[in-house]
Amino acid sequence: VKVLHRLAAAAVLLLAPSAAEAHLVNTRLGDFYGGALHPLTAFEEVLPWLALAALAAFQGAARARWLVVVFPLSLFAGCALSQLLPSPSFIPAIAVALIAITGLSVAAAVRLPLPVLLGLTAVMGLVHGLQNGQAMTATTDRLLFISGVTAIGYGVMTIATGAAIAFLRGVGGWRPIALRASGSWVAAVGIMVLALQFLTPVTN
Amino acid sequence: MQNTPLRSSLSIAVLLTLVPLTSALAHTGAGVASGLQSGFLHPITGFDHLVAMVAVGLWGAQLRNPAIWILPITFPLVMAMGGLLGVSGVPLPLSEPVVALSGIALGLLIALHVRLPLVVAMLVVGIFAVFHGYAHGRELPDAADPTAYAVGFVVATGLLHLCGIVIGLLIMWPIGARAVRACGAAIGCVGAYFLLASLGVIQ
After folding, report:
1. Staple partner for A145: which of A35, B2, B64, B69, CB 3.0–4.6 Å?
2. pTM of full prediction above 0.90
3. Alpha carbon A80 to its chain's center
4. What's the ipTM?
């Protein structure tokens, strides 16, 4: 029943933002919610978050727990850095590459050393923090916005990692296979969008 | 007492869904929705793509473990390479006839219950995946939101594989195994129709 609750909560969190759009200046929810909703409105961020959670689940609960701490802290640091430094031009390419890397890692169900897992988590948090931080305007309450981004990072990563671990613990040899197949989907998206970053697309 | 956590979870879920989410900044939801929809519908509305995707799942189920899961994992990864070629505009001759041919080939393999070695099966599926990915990739740069478009068509492709696998589970019964082979024959016929259409033999 607990697993169902987690899955239901995760589904609500992940599906609800599909309707989000427009700009912070139009919001009536405040800067905290603006920050909290911003990462969920882009597949470029939601996909690698879910893939990272699945990858962590393959490493076991003891290792996966570290993500719950490292990821939101990295997001916070990335958002804060965005206010101090101009964002390097290669950040969008790294963000897309992270989709492919995490997806391929899940598809292969690789066993990563803890420092590598945490390094990947920190890089993703910093990159996405930088990207989200850039969305702040002159009138945005920075503390509220960054708190929102950090809170949603913590919430999504906790729920997704917990759900993935519970899913893998269930009965049936198909469960890791299903997770690996979903990783291959994420990797496929990442590879194609990465191609768009580097190749000159030919429009019809 | 067991209903209490369920009630609290439902309350949270209802509260979350009531939050008006029309105001996050920067990303255009309309572009995401449109890209997702067009990407999702691309493999489904193209019947030649649809039958070939179902055939991959069917054949995987027929070949049993480990092909049942290796083929559907191989397909999207190799399809992404085809998508990459499509995005970059590399000319891939006869892409439409080969997509149709994939339906014929996979349909025949299912209908005749051909049990190829796993590596060869992966190669066959991989070659066809390149052409399917190429067709999708050609549309990618024009999409309202390319990432959402890619998510849409990859998810649709994966779900069609899953449909094929679920239908393929009928092989557990003798009559079901015959039904699966009949599905293969039907897929082959659909592929033949599209091949003739792509060559201009029939309108």
Report:
1. A35
2. no
3. 18
4. 0.75
